[in-house]
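[step 3/7] inverse_fold.run input=structure_tokens len=357
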């Protein structure tokens, strides 16, 4: 590149300088070279700039003529610079397209869109049905006190029912040397917590995660969800329990569903029942049906009238208030509804399974 010199300004020097500059420019191939060229001709100490500064030494007529030529030359250089820059742009794009095999017409990469986990979907569906029936949704702690998980539910220490709910204990000892904290085995502890913190009428459902120390198989996980339900008021009877749960089953599984209640034992309800629906796969026929294992019925939850001892434990008068409670497993409900054969699929994080919902 030609070094800046102070040439005397004349129409010839301007013409020569313009020619040289345009000629040099046409040979440049990168943005760095263009910038050096710009500084050399048009920069603060560039050749054309210095030449313009020398105009003051000319007489007035000459200054007018040469000045106008110099300004024209400046415009020419600037236009040429712009054109060359655009040419380099195009050349770079063409080179990268041929070298990188870039196909600018290809559609862009799509961002994968997530979805709700099937458990979340079914929990929302279940809670939605109960919301329509006038229940509020509340949640409670997964790390729970023995006091709420067992004691307040009429399951004192040494009670054989504790064996049904073997769980994972938190490694923490109180002053009495007991381990009072555990991962809750069911959502039922929220019965006592809700009753302690509010007054009847109570109508709540409690979705949440539970944990049990157990070997897993196709229908048992060591962590799973439950949805608890509790209604307490004056004059609530077993007919309310039946009516509510019957309506729930019909809304979730279809208008034609029949329900069956059989006696079952849970220390915190009296009487206790398990509720089944007639099998929607074989319409209750049973014969050779894999879903209901030939029985025609599918068990979907435990339920019962809140035990008077539980009511008294939270300071309610069992002579005045009665209530019903129920607890169901949403994964098992989803398994029935969608024909899923193994509960372990829910938490194996296999997208081939999860994407189906
Ligand atoms: C209970 O946990 C009681 N708390 C339910 C209850 C509430 C009864 C209120 C009466 C009144 P159970 O252990 O049967 O009961 O569990 C209830 C539901 O949780 C089962 O029907 C099942 O759907 C689900 N469940 C229990 N254990 C597992 C497990 N290991 N894996 C997956 N789901 C489970």
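[step 3/7] decode complete -> sequence:
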């Amino acid at each position: 590149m030609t070094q800046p010199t102070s040439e005397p300004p004349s129409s010839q020097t301007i013409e020569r300088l313009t020619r040289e500059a345009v000629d040099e420019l046409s040979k440049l191939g990168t943005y760095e070279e263009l910038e050096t060229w710009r500084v050399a001709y048009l920069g603060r100490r560039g050749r054309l700039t210095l030449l313009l500064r020398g105009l003051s030494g000319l007489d007035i007529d000459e200054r007018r003529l040469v000045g106008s030529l110099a300004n024209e030359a400046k415009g020419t250089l600037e236009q040429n610079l712009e054109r060359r820059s655009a040419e380099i742009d195009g050349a770079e794009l063409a080179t990268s397209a041929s070298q990188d095999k870039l196909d600018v017409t290809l559609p862009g990469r799509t961002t994968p869109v997530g979805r709700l986990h099937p458990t979340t979907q079914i929990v929302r569906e279940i809670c939605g049905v109960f919301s329509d029936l006038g229940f509020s949704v509340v949640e409670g702690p997964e790390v729970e006190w023995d006091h709420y998980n067992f004691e307040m539910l009429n399951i004192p220490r040494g009670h054989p029912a504790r064996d049904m709910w073997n769980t994972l204990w938190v490694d923490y000892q109180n002053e009495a040397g007991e381990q009072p904290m555990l991962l809750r085995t069911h959502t039922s502890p929220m019965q006592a917590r809700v009753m302690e913190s509010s007054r009847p009428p109570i109508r709540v459902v409690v979705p949440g995660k539970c944990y049990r120390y157990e070997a897993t198989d196709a229908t048992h996980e060591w962590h799973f969800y439950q949805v608890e339900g509790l209604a307490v008021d004056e004059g609530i009877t077993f007919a309310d329990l039946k009516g509510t749960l019957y309506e729930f089953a019909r809304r979730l599984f279809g208008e034609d569903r029949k329900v069956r209640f059989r006696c079952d034992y849970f220390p915190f309800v009296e009487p206790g029942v398990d509720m089944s629906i007639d099998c929607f796969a074989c319409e209750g026929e049973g014969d050779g049906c894999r879903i209901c294992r030939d029985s025609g019925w599918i068990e979907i939850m435990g339920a019962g009238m809140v035990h008077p001892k539980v009511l008294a434990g939270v300071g309610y008068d069992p002579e005045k208030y009665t209530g019903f409670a129920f607890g169901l497993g949403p994964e098992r409900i989803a398994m029935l509804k969608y024909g899923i054969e193994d509960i372990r699929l829910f938490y194996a994080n296999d997208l081939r399974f999860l994407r189906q919902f």
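[step 4/7] annotate
The mean pLDDT is 90.
The first strand starts at residue 136 and ends at 137.
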